[in-house]
Automatic annotation (TrEMBL):
Lineage: Eukaryota, Metazoa, Chordata, Craniata, Vertebrata
Origin superkingdom: Eukaryota
PANTHER family xrefs: PARATHYROID HORMONE-RESPONSIVE B1 GENE (PTHR20991), PROTEIN PTHB1 (PTHR20991:SF0)
Residue stretches making up the PTHB1 GAE domain: 230-273
Organism this protein belongs to: Xenoophorus captivus
Record domain PTHB1 N-terminal: where: 1-157
Alphabetical list of InterPro entries matching this protein: PHTB1_GAE_dom, PHTB1_N_dom, PTHB1
Protein name: Bardet-Biedl syndrome 9
Length: 287
């Protein structure tokens, strides 16, 4: 401080005889430390222990330096910090930190160890620990639009205690009777014939197909010939019968090559108790 005062005095007086004696206006630092990023806040807590610490909050890191410029510890942050506040720790040799983030979080660190995390309704730009007449240790947060939030760490204590129940001996005979009754209900409820619906003798839907044993006299194939050879065809008759009404029924025919079918989709009208037969033509591409 004396060097700063003398240099400032020499600069203000502009005395040619004084400047050479004080070494001029140029000041040299005792030590420097390269952070590698912009420092958002610097704090020198007064509750330091054997040696004072200089805490620097960067854009992605938190630095703690000794008074001689040596680094004490560094914490790499996985978020964008907005503010921080060192405060006294109950454990000797450690420093507690209140650290606000841009994702509305308030984190409490003991040196580099995370001890507590809380969600805030806004991004804090400043945080302090305040003491009121009947309330001490209140965390006060300030938002960018001027909102103040007073909060505290921890949860509300629960004063509810479970009332005592009257101790009574269990009547084992009554419990045995009740257990047998419940087991009987369970057996009746888990029976298969009671769970699954009983099916009628007649099937709800039946599909039967009949393949003619003779080839068609006149081929119904879509391709009449291949390499000059005629393609034969055979007629397959499909009978669909439903015992209940079906809406928007469709019949699809799936076959494997080299077989081919003249029509693979059939839109069936509303199916009732009886349904007319729907024949379709099946053709053969091979010889």
């Amino acid at each position: 401080y004396e060097t700063l005062a003398v240099a400032t005095d020499a600069e203000s007086r502009q005395d040619s005889d004084l400047l050479p004696k004080t070494g001029g206006k140029r000041l040299t630092p005792d030590w420097t430390f390269v952070l590698g990023e912009q420092a958002q806040d610097i704090s020198v807590p007064s509750f330091s222990h054997s040696s004072s610490s200089i805490l620097v909050l960067g854009e992605r890191n938190l630095f703690c330096l000794r008074d001689n410029g040596q680094i004490r510890f560094m914490k790499k942050l996985e978020f964008n910090p907005s503010c921080f506040l060192p405060y006294a720790s109950v454990k000797d040799g450690t420093t507690n930190l209140l650290l606000g983030t841009h994702n509305n979080m308030l984190l409490i660190y003991q040196d580099v160890t995370l001890k507590w995390a809380a969600q805030l309704p806004f991004v804090p730009v400043a945080v302090r620990v305040a003491s009121f007449p009947e309330l001490k240790g209140v965390v006060v947060s300030l938002s960018s639009d001027g909102h103040l939030l007073s909060s505290y760490l921890g949860t509300d204590p629960s004063f509810f205690s479970t009332p005592k129940v009257d101790a009574r001996e269990a009547d084992y005979e009554q419990v045995d009777v009740e257990m047998k009754k419940l087991q009987k209900f369970i057996r009746e409820a888990t029976r298969t014939q009671d769970i699954l619906p009983k099916s009628d003798a007649a099937e709800d839907l039946s599909v039967k197909s009949t393949v003619c044993s003779c080839l068609d006299i006149s081929s119904q194939a879509l391709i009449p010939d291949i390499d000059g050879l005629p393609v034969p065809s055979v007629t397959v008759q499909v009978k669909v019968k439903a015992s209940s009404v079906l809406q928007s029924a469709k019949l699809s025919v799936c076959i494997q090559p080299p077989l081919a079918v003249s029509q693979d989709q059939f839109d069936l009208e509303q199916m009732g108790k009886q349904l007319e037969d729907h024949p379709f033509i099946l053709r053969l591409d091979s010889k």
